[in-house]
Design goal:
Length: 650
């Protein structure tokens, strides 16, 4: 990974730590207090062991003299034992408190980032979300946000502790033995140096691992959702091989990350063990008399005895015991930082995808204007763009007044759904899109959407109950209102027939319901909005004739005296529309009512002919076969008895 990019990612990661609140600082302070308690504990342990093992022995000044010792009562060290037990309990409580504070800091951070990601996806809208498989978004929201936990809970506090604890121990060691302090000081940089050398490629490996995981998640979820289609087209075995290849790629990348982690841990353990061994050798040869440097005052003692009865140098193991007990603790914060360095590498790898999403430009809708109702809707030289700046539609102009109905028709890719997405505030635009004379970008989007009733070609019901889905916009709706909405959508009889009624469960992806039933429940939910404008995108696509008739009749009743914009491929059912806009390649090529357009040579008449010919069991009267034939008679009776074809997705 580019160093400048990694640095910018680290700056962004550290800037997010304010979301952790006081818990990050609390974790750090508890770690520092625990370090002070650890030094005090080492002092007491060294004092007890020295007193019990050596007593008051002195090294004689003459070679032929014997070592002198005096008996030591165990009661002398009772306060030391009490203090030792208290310090052990205190360190245990501090460790528990630090773990809890660290976890809470990471938890708050994860909640903050997830909320930011979900808010961003909400602002970018479905037009942007459909650009990636659902599995890729799940990977970002779940796995990659989860990998930030240890960076804030462990790595950031450990950076401070890795500097504080060694300095604290050096401050305790140098006044006792300068040679031991010098050994610790010179060997300390070896661990972070080799940690950096070994872990230089860890962030890049983690980034590639996250990319492989996102691809695998999206690939697997797509194949799982289309399992029935794959089986019908005998593609099961082929897709298994593709999934196996993607899984093998992910396994290979994961093992490369683990290989770096184990190599780093082995290097850290090796140099820590060598450094401690050097200290042990130094003190061993010092006590054997082969090394005689590093001490202050009397040999091997903190302070020389002033007792005139003792003839010789007081001999003590305290210095060696105290420093050797502290030596592992001196290197432990550096080793822990090496262990948590991989948490940093994981966080950097995850941050790249998160920043790419969170900094993605979004439609500029920051207005605060609120309207009470929709009286007029007009577009003037309107151009609609994708989130990456590609023009999808326009320029075009039209006007829709209260109680009028507008239909958008045209071949797939003409820009019909793009216009709806712009109207819903999900795509940026240029030109003018006016609501009651106010620019759409000047409106409060949340309040604007309360005036809309949306119904698409793929009903989206959420896991829960019928009540939860119908009352999605207002969970406080009473049961009587819910039953009335279901009755208006021609689905109340089905719900009443269920044992649990409104509390009947609805599974993921509307499992347990037919497409027609799910669409009518979605229609009941839309009717609950009490909207001024109905925005419909192929509402009867994929429905059989009976369900289509039920949904259409419910919509006709609901849209009475309401404004409506509808995208449809069922051109033979547009006789109730006031205006029809025919789009092709993002431009309006025809406009008018059904009678006018069906009797005018052009794209609409061609689409109408293709639409009628695609329906089985239909009786046609005077349908022209070429431009020179008689125009289509819009009053000709059409007998549509078969199930309509599924509308094409925009």
């Amino acid at each position: 990974m580019d160093k400048s990019l990694e640095k910018s990612l680290l700056v962004w990661l550290k800037a997010q730590k304010k979301a952790c609140g006081l818990f990050l600082k609390l974790s750090l302070w508890l770690g520092m207090i625990s370090a002070v308690a650890m030094v005090a504990q080492a002092y007491i342990i060294a004092t007890i062991l020295d007193g019990v093992i050596m007593g008051q022995q002195v090294v004689p000044l003459t070679d032929n003299a014997q070592m002198v010792s005096s008996s030591v009562s165990i009661d002398t060290y009772t306060p030391h034992f009490i203090a030792l037990i208290a310090l052990m309990l205190l360190r245990a409580l501090l460790a528990y408190g630090r773990e809890r504070a660290s976890f809470e800091a990471g938890k708050r951070l994860r909640g903050h980032i997830r909320a930011a990601v979900m808010d961003k996806l909400t602002k970018l809208g479905p037009a942007f979300i459909k650009g990636k498989p659902a599995g890729s978004w799940a990977s970002i929201v779940l796995e990659q946000v989860e990998d930030l936990q240890d960076f804030y809970a462990r790595y950031l506090p450990q950076i401070s502790l890795a500097g504080f604890i060694p300095i604290l121990i050096l401050a305790a060691v140098f006044p006792i033995n300068w040679a031991a302090g010098l050994i610790l000081l010179l060997t300390a940089p070896l661990i972070p140096m080799f940690m950096i050398l070994v872990g230089m490629g860890a962030a890049d490996a983690n980034r590639k691992n996250f990319s492989a995981l996102a691809r695998l998640s999206g690939h697997f979820m797509d194949r799982l959702k289309g399992l029935s289609t794959l089986k019908l087209f005998h593609r099961g075995d082929a897709e298994l091989k593709v999934i196996a290849t993607a899984s093998e790629e992910f396994r290979s990348r994961t093992m490369s990350v683990l290989r770096m982690a184990f190599l780093s841990s082995a290097v850290l353990e090796f140099f820590a063990a060598v450094s401690i061994a050097v200290l042990a050798v130094y003190f061993g040869f010092s006590y054997l008399g082969h090394l005689d440097f590093g001490y202050y005052g009397a040999h091997a003692n903190i302070s020389s005895s002033t007792d005139p009865q003792i003839v010789g140098i007081p001999f003590s193991l305290f210095t060696g015991l105290f420093i050797l007990i502290l030596a592992p603790e001196f290197y432990q914060p550096l080793r822990d930082m090496g262990t948590h360095y991989h948490a940093k590498a994981q966080a950097v790898g995850a941050a790249e995808a998160l920043i790419t999403l969170l900094e993605h430009p979004e439609p500029e809708f920051v207005g605060q204007v609120r309207i009470n109702s929709i009286e007029t809707l007009s577009a003037d030289h309107l151009e609609v763009f994708s989130v990456d700046g590609t023009r999808l539609l326009g320029p075009l102009s039209f006007e829709l007044k209260d109680n009028q109905r507008l239909a958008l028709v045209g071949p797939s890719g003409a820009g019909k759904t793009s216009l709806l997405n712009a109207l819903l505030g999900f795509l940026p635009y240029k030109g003018h899109l006016l609501i009651n004379g106010h620019e759409l970008s000047a409106l409060d989007l949340a309040h604007w959407r309360q005036h809309l009733a949306w119904l698409g070609q793929e009903p989206q019901l959420f896991h829960g109950t019928v009540r939860d889905n119908v009352a999605l916009a207002d969970p406080t709706l009473p049961d009587d209102t819910l039953w009335h909405l279901l009755a208006e959508a021609n689905i109340s009889d089905f719900v009443k027939a269920q044992p649990l009624g409104l509390d009947s469960p609805v599974g993921e992806q509307s499992s347990g319901l037919s497409v027609g039933q799910a669409q009518r429940i979605a229609l009941a939910r839309a009717l609950g909005q009490k909207a001024s404008l109905f925005v419909l995108d192929e509402p009867t696509a994929s429905l059989d004739s009976q369900c289509e008739q039920a949904v259409s009749s419910a919509l006709n009743r609901a849209m009475m005296d309401k404004m409506c914009i509808m995208v449809t491929h069922r051109l033979d059912q547009l006789d109730q529309m006031d205006t029809i806009l025919v789009l092709d390649k993002g431009l309006i090529v025809q406009r008018g009512d059904f009678t006018t357009l069906s009797n005018t040579h052009g794209l609409f008449q061609t689409l109408l002919r293709e639409n009628i010919e695609s329906v089985a069991d239909i009786e046609l009267v005077s349908l022209p076969t070429s431009a020179s034939d008689t125009p289509l008679n819009s009053d000709a009776p059409l007998d549509i008895a078969a199930e309509p074809t599924k509308g094409e997705a925009q």
